[in-house]
Amino acid sequence: MQELKSLTHWSWFMLDDEYFLEVKRRVYSALDDSIMQKGVQRGMASFLSNLTENLGHEHVLQLAGEVKEFKRHSISNMAELLKQAVDSIQRNGVAAYIAKDKDDAKSIIKKLTDDDRIIVKSKSMVAEEIGLRNYLISLGKEVWETDLGEFIIQLRGDKPAQMVAPSLHVPREEVARLLSDFFKVDFGKDDLKGMVDAVRNFLREKIAKADTGITGANAISAREGALLTVENEGNIRLTMTLPKKHIVLSSIEKIVPTTTDALKVCLAQSYYAGYTKPTYISLTSTPSGTGDIEKVMVRPAQGSREMHVVLLDNGRSLASSSEFSDMLRCIKCGACQMVCPSYAVMGPSWGGKVYTAAIGLVWTAITESIDEAESLSYFCLSCDACNEVCPVGIDVSGLIKTLRKKGSSNLMNAEGLG
Amino acid sequence: MAEPISRVQLFRVMVDNQEKFGNPMGISSKRMVEWADDIPFTSSSSSSTYIYTGGLYQMMPKAERFVELMKRAEESSGLSFALRFLGGSAASTLASKLIGVDHDKFERSKAIIRNASRLLRKSGIEHSYLGRDEPYTGILFYELGMEEYFIDVARKAAKLFREKGVKKLITIDPHSTYALRELYPDFLDSFDVEVLHYLEVAKPSRNDTWKGKATVHDPCILSRRLKLSSNYREFLEALGIEYTEPARSGRMTFCCGGPIESIAPAVSTKISELRCSQLAEKGDKAVVACPICLSNLGRCGYSRDRGGSNARIEVFDALELVHVG
Q: By C-alpha distance, which of A185, A187, A190, A258 is closest to A220?
């Protein structure tokens, strides 16, 4: 009788843990994906030597310390800064919209792009968050990702593997296969230059013809309404200037008090993403124009004619007053992902629909699903490698442990354990 | 892959074991204290300094078998079905009995703890041992997110230390050290036992009997939470061990995979293999200072034919390199 009782109890429980088991099956199936692991592990190895070099510079550490402080301050004043930023952006002659969730953001962008045929995009985690590319395609638009890694993701119909390097999990052999198929040219796996050239030529044509360019922003200054982006490829600059319309889709935690602060975020993001210096940092605050003829302002000049800024909340305001508030300091450099042993073997399978690994689990909790994030949290080693490299001092593994604690205490209570 | 094991199966085994045996792996107190059989400890009243084993070295050989069994269960559906019952409250005692302990590995664990005690004595640190009364810290429950249960276990442990008049504990593994030093004062109302790790107090002498170079593996907790990487290296230097650094070392160390060995054995093994191959790039011997690293990296090094690992590396605990004869 006793056995029977525990058996029925047990079956009831199995249903309840089904979500965890589903996540476990998913990450287990990634363990045999040696192609993914090759890409991720190669990337991690070269990242380590780059980051180690950067961390050897006193100015890099000092910069990170400064960013940590004003980001901390910014997050505790997020609502106030948002108001200030919206005012500044509008004062610049730019339309500003606050989107409370994914659907809201999509419908705003739908209205803004109703008459457009071709849209080009730069890589943006926030755009991934709302599923922007596929949404616009579903509306019948021709949409192209202009960041090489994100272009690869688009061709694969995949999700980004990492914050800064979305196609990290795709080794060169696989990229060559993919691009050979797409361009109907036979690329050897080591013909990196040939591949990059082909994509460059293809995308330049698309950017030139595009009606709208959509970019993200790495940081936004509240005081001046300036939007800053950091990149190496040059695609963001083209995307924001060549098409007539520029839409910035970013999120509310990116707002910092001043333009100098915003610039520091960009530099720190670049250093901690493993680059010695960024190739381009772009600042934009108004549509392009010229006053060269008799000081009369005429728009556009060479750049975009109109600008719109969409600021996504999607759980962030809620998070700012929760136990996950520290996480909003994140500048999405992805360093924590690139040193994570669990990520080295599970790759992007260890994550939600958009954000993966280490801090990606917490982003998943905030922007997507707390249940998903709880289940994912059990595959964290609590080894603290992430904390060691976080420029803004987020206790990443501690936040993941908070998620696990939620999962476990629900379980313990449900089971009458402990 | 058949059917993965759920969280609750695992939690139940561990909680049941804790209730029945005082540790999550269900090691009997008789086995726990075996290492001290031939060490004459002074009666506890004469000293308030104790060596604290935390039971981790004793538990790891059994944990290894347990994880192996879970891994097999997850790989084959038939066995998995049978093991569903492993989590049933009535069955965990049975399961604990079914899982034997590798004799050689258990003897090895005993020798490591004995070495620790002898080393401390040689370093002039007189100490007692709580023997069968020694409580488990509960750290595993904390790491698995079972915080309330951890606090429960910790309270009982702290009460016991108080009753026994324990003033100072010398620990031999990073996990127990972290629990006692950082977590107990945080979670308990008053916890004023001084906690020292052996790497902070032991004074080893040169060991010329150990030959060869060793790649040094920093246990995560030791290097990042306790910040004892330099003590660890000074210790090796005092022993006269020539060591090399792997690509990921010190505060940038790479985990052995051990912490999730019970929740996701397949993931854990993959990480162990990766770490072993990183260490093997620098030589064929590695040194660790943690029972969990020793177990996970050690097993991976030995089972080089399995799971695609080609890391041929022999793993030693730092306490195996000391000369206490």
A: A258
Check A415 against B12: CB less than 8 A apart: yes
Q: Which amino acid is at A195?
A: M
Burial B115-140 (b: 16+ CB within 10 A, else e): bbbbbbeeeebebbbbeeebbbbbbb
CB < 8 Å from B in window 154-213 of A: none
CB distance A377 to B145 below 8 Å: yes
Q: What is the pLDDT of residue B324?
A: 82
Give the span between the Cα atoms of A266 and A349, in whole angstroms: 28
Q: How far is it, in rounded angstroms, from Cα B298 to Cα B324?
A: 23
Question: Which residues 6+ apart lie within 8 Å of B125 measured at CB?
Answer: B49, B170, B201, B202
Q: Could you say which residues of chain A have pLDDT below 70?
A: 1-16, 417-418
Q: Do B8 and A13 touch (CB under 8 A)?
A: yes
Contacts of B8 in chain A (CB under 8 A): 13, 17, 411, 415
Q: Which residues of B touch A339 (CB under 8 A)?
A: 248, 252
pLDDT, residue B5, reads 83
Q: Which of A16, A22, A378, A412 to mutate to test the interface with B (most CBs of B within 10 A)?
A: A412
* Cα end-to-end span (Å), chain B: 49
Tell me if B220 and A384 make a contact (CB, 8 A cut-off).
Answer: yes
Chain position carrying tokens 């909340």? A313
Question: If you measure CA to CA, which chain B residue comes closest to A374?
Answer: B145
Distances (CA, A) of A342 to A27, A38, A97, B28: 10, 14, 38, 33
Give yes or no for residue B123 having a pLDDT over 80: yes
* CA-CA-CA-CA torsion sign (B17, B20, B23, B25): negative
Could you tell me the two tokens for A63?
A: 């910069």
**pLDDT of B153 higher than 70:** yes
Q: Is the dihedral of CA B59, B61, B67, B73 positive or negative?
A: negative
Kindly provide the ipTM of the predicted complex, given to two decimals. Answer: 0.93
d(CA B7, CA A408): 8
In B, which residues are within 8 Å of A385 by CB distance?
A: 220, 224, 252-255
Facing residue for A388 by CB, picked from B87, B90, B251: B251
Q: What pLDDT was estimated at residue B97?
A: 60
CB-defined contacts A:B, below 8 A: 140
- Please classify residue A243 by burial: count the beta carbons closer than 10 Å to its beta carbon, then call 0-12 exposed, 13-18 middle and 19+ buried: buried
- The position carrying tokens 């709580």 is B130
CA distance B253 to B242: 19
CB nearest to A17's CB, from B8, B146, B271: B8
Q: How many CB atoms lie within 10 A of CB B78?
A: 9
Q: What is the pLDDT of residue A350?
A: 97
Q: Fill in the amino acid letter for B203.
A: K
Mean pLDDT of chain B: 89
Q: Does the reported pTM lie above 0.80?
A: yes
Asked if A229 contacts A218 with a C-beta cutoff of 8 angstroms, the reply is yes
**Residue B102 confidence class, pLDDT cut points 50, 70, 90:** confident
Which chain B residue has its CA at the smallest distance from A19's CA?
Answer: B6
Cis peptide upstream of residue B135 (ω within 30 degrees of 0): no
Distance CA A269, CA A254 (A): 12
Residue that the structure tokens 């059990």 belong to: A378
With 50 as the cut, is the pLDDT of residue B90 above it? no
Quick check: A417 and B255 CB within 8 A? no
